[in-house]
Amino acid sequence: MIETIVLTVLIIAICLALLSVKVLFKKKGRFESQHIHDNAAMRKLGIHCVIDQDREARRNSDIAEEIRNRIKK
């Protein structure tokens, strides 16, 4: 039982060390952003994150405009 736990912790420690090699050994090293809006290829294809797409759809919808007009009154 203890051997399994020690082996598991060792494997996790090795994985973390390998994942952080770029951050630790490269000058000004950092992890790359995993967000869609930070990816140039996705932007070029016109693909946005779901939050941006939802915001855009709400701005363009007639229903949203009608609600805004009713709130202003």
Entry keywords:
73 residues; mainly alpha; elongated
Provide a descriptive summary of the structure in words.
Helices cover 70% and strands 0% of the residues. It has 5 helices and no strands. It has helices at 2-19, 21-25, 40-45, 50-60, 62-72. The longest helix has 18 residues, at 2-19. 0% of the residues are buried.
What is the H/E string? HHHHH
- Taking all residues together, what is the mean pLDDT? 82
Q: What's the count of strands?
A: 0
The major β-sheet equals: none
Radius of gyration: 23 Å
What structural class should be given to the helix and strand makeup?
Answer: mainly alpha
- Helix percent band: 55-70%
Summarize the structure.
The chain is built from five helices and no strands.
What's the helix and strand layout?
Layout: H1 2-19, H2 21-25, H3 40-45, H4 50-60, H5 62-72
